[in-house]
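Hi Y.,

Following your request, here is the sequence exactly as I used it, all 116 residues.
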Amino acid sequence: MKIGIAGAGGIGSNVAVHLIRSGLRRFKLVDDDRVETGNLNRQYYFHDQVGRVKVDALAENLLRIAPGAQIESVRLRLDQNNMARLFADCDVVVEGFDGRPQKKLLIEALSVLNKT
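Below is the corresponding structure, written out as tokens. Let me know if you'd prefer a different format.
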């Protein structure tokens, strides 16, 4: 089973860690943000990762938990033109956005794929 993580912030990073600790091993992480100091109190990142691309730092953290996992990192801003394409190969998609407009766009994009 391949899990898509849409947004690697507070929701996405923590859900990914819980899922990999539960035994899941295939992930696609999509986000365009970088780790900031202000993220460290609620997101699954560490001080030495500040400034790094979130999907790369999260992939590194997941692989430290499960070295054989298959993690695909995509540094890209999700929008209505790419959401369906990016998650078409995922069995489940975790929505981890901050804003309502992106949440709505993702639901609409995934409904086309019957993944809602």
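The helical segments are 10-21, 54-65, 83-87, 100-112.

Thanks again,
Q.
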